Amino acid sequence: MKAEFIPLSEKEFIVKCKLIENNVIIFEIQTMASSRDQAVRIVKNWEENTKEIYPKVIELLNKERSEEEE
Predict the structure, then answer these.
(1) How far are the Cα atoms of 8, 47, 66 from residue 50, in angstroms, in the given order?
(2) How confident is the model at residue 69, as a pLDDT?
(3) What is the pLDDT along the chain (70 residues), one digit of tens a residue?
(4) DSSP type of residue 35
(5) Within 10 A of 5 (CB to CB), how many other CB atoms are there?
(6) Core-most of 24, 27, 37, 62, by most CB within 10 Å?
(7) CA-atom Rg of the chain in angstroms
C-alpha cells in the first residue's frame, strides 16, 4: 500500500491512496482534502487500515441497487 498527498494551496490537497501487489496497482483512489491535517489523517488511515477499507469499497462498488434505493 502507498499513500501520499500533494499540496495545491494552503487549503487544497490531493490525496492519493494505492494498493499495490507484485508491483501492480490493483486499486487506486484520489480525493481532495481541505486542510493539511485532513490530508495527513486520510494517508494515515489508509496506511493503517487498508485491509478494512479496500474490501468495503469493493463491496459497495459491486452492490446491486434496486430502483427503490436510487
Answers:
(1) 25, 6, 29
(2) 66
(3) 899 999 999 999 999 999 999 999 999 999 999 999 999 999 999 999 999 999 999 999 999 887 666 5
(4) S
(5) 19
(6) 27
(7) 14
Distance CA 19, CA 16 (A): 10
Q: Which letter does DSSP use for residue 43 in this model?
A: H
pTM here is: 0.84
Report the C-alpha gap between 7 and 9 in whole angstroms. 6
- Quick one: cell of 2? 502507498
For the chain, which residues make up each domain, given as ranges?
A: 2-62
Residue spans of alpha helices (H) in the chain: 36-62
**Cβ distance 61 to 27 under 8 Å?**
no
